[in-house]
Specification:
- The protein has three helices and 23 strands.
- By secondary structure, it is an alpha/beta fold.
- An eight-stranded mixed beta sheet has the order 5-8-11-14-17-20-22-23, with helices on one face. It has a six-stranded parallel beta sheet with strand order 6-9-12-15-18-21, with no helix packed on it. Strands 7-10-13-16-19 form a five-stranded parallel beta sheet, with no helix packed on it.
- It starts with a strand and ends with a strand.
């Protein structure tokens, strides 16, 4: 019997993930949040909070997809569900172009129009957002978010929990540390150490 598909979280980013589920000809009827939402654009059934034991037991026969854009919150929810044995497969939109020679961690979401080229390694619960380009031999750590239109040239490494802003461009061979924020439209030409926020062309650090 096929597992049911459910969404964890139910706001902006979750709506896009629900469309991913639908585009893969799967059916999503339930959402899970701390409290029920008044705004319910997909007419889903509220299943309760994923933090409660009863709900966790009910999710044992589900494929749970994370509809959480914030890296920190997504990491926390993923860890909780993973520790409780919940299945969280990766999902990709049919319009994405993905090399057969890559690795993708669980709970990762690859949005429409994304391109991921050969020998790339993508960690757990990563978001490759709409139209992002991730070139050959890139390495994306767990809980990274690559925003719409961002371009990572070949051999780029992005540390865990980092955020690459919309339409940012990362030069080939650059290493970006953990917990880094790259501002929208930035052009990153050199390595970025952990816990920095950078923006501009060329990108410069504003917080260390």
């Amino acid at each position: 019997m096929m597992n049911k598909s459910v969404i964890i979280g139910y706001s902006g980013h979750a709506y896009v993930v629900i469309d991913l589920i639908i585009s893969n000809k799967l059916v999503c009827k339930y959402y899970y949040e701390k409290t029920a939402k008044e705004y319910n654009p997909y007419d889903l059934v509220y299943g309760g909070s994923e933090e409660t034991p009863d709900v966790l037991r009910s999710l044992k026969d589900a494929d749970a997809y994370l509809g959480i854009g914030d890296n920190r919150i997504r990491s926390s929810v993923f860890t909780h569900l993973h520790e409780n044995g919940i299945n969280m497969p990766f999902i990709a939109h049919p319009s994405s172009v993905i090399s057969t020679k890559i690795s993708i961690g669980e709970a990762t979401a690859i949005m429409p129009g994304s391109m991921i080229n050969s020998l790339t390694m993508i960690g757990k619960a990563v978001i490759c957002n709409t139209g992002s380009i991730i070139e050959h031999e890139c390495v994306l750590g767990d809980f990274v978010h690559v925003a719409p239109g961002a371009v990572l040239a070949g051999n780029v490494t992005v540390g865990a929990h980092s955020f690459i802003g919309a339409n940012a461009v990362i030069r080939q061979g650059v290493t970006i540390g953990e917990h880094v924020i790259i501002g929208a439209g930035s052009v990153v030409l050199a390595d970025i150490k952990d816990n920095c926020t950078v923006y501009g062309n060329p990108a410069k650090s504003i917080v260390q």
